Amino acid sequence: MLVEVAASGAVDNLVLRWKGAAWPIREIAPGRYEGLIGVDLEDPEGPAPLFAEGFRGNARLLAETVVVVSPRKFAVQELTLPKGMAEFDNATLARIGAEAAELSRRLSRVTPPRWRTPFLPPVEEYRPANFGARRVINGDPRMPHAGVDIRLPAGTPVRAIADGRVAFAGEQFFGGRSVVIDHGGGVFSVYYHLKEFSVVEGQEISRGDRVGSVGATGRATGPHLHFGVRVPGGRVDPTRLFALPAR
Ligand SMILES: [Zn+2]
Fold this sequence. Notes:
By secondary structure, the protein is mainly beta. It has two domains: 2-69, Immunoglobulin-like (Sandwich), CATH 2.60.40; 76-243, Distorted Sandwich (Glucose Permease (Domain IIA)), CATH 2.70.70. The protein has two helices and 19 strands. The strands form four sheets. Strands 11, 12, 13, 14, 15, 16, 17, 18 and 19 form a nine-stranded antiparallel sheet that branches. It has a four-stranded antiparallel sheet with strand order 3-2-6-7, with no helix packed on it. A three-stranded antiparallel sheet has the order 1-5-4, with no helix packed on it. Strand 9 (134-137) and strand 10 form a beta hairpin. The protein binds zinc ion. The site of zinc ion (ZN) has 4 residues, from loops.
């Protein structure tokens, strides 16, 4: 959701308070501010309070509204994978755990907002599938699928959906060759299973810049792009971003 805040007069340190955390917001015109929040794919349905908070001198200014989270049904996807792709020895489990911890550390950094609408789909032929699928692999329930899969020939160019900075570019057990871009304000985009990537960590990126190309590295049964988005509030359906109005 795009959240717009209007203020009469100057406001300092304006933030959105959503799901127990404070998120920076961007001034788009004098007295008008914009932020992006989301509902995680595992959040419960029901009302959730959203606050805009700022200061004028020592006075705390607060505006409140209520977001009503409605239910959404996700597909259940039963997959049969060779044992080597679904059962792991202790060394591999340690690697998976370390990679997940490192990634969540990077995803928890909040920098000033740099994203802008409209977001650009990561590939020219954007045909998303599997968002939120509850996965059952060889009979065992696993983590829900936090992104979309886009089946495309290996080598298809992948591009950045918005301006930002490369927060991760490297090799992961599940993701294979992986790139994560920090768009600021708690917004990140994630690109997995790349054949190769053409960016380095810390690099400044503009919307539309080439990130790499579609591949089948890591745990993938064939060439496709796994694409995910993280916004304040959690892992959201990335396709929603492309429907946001342009400024
Ligand atoms: Zn995927």
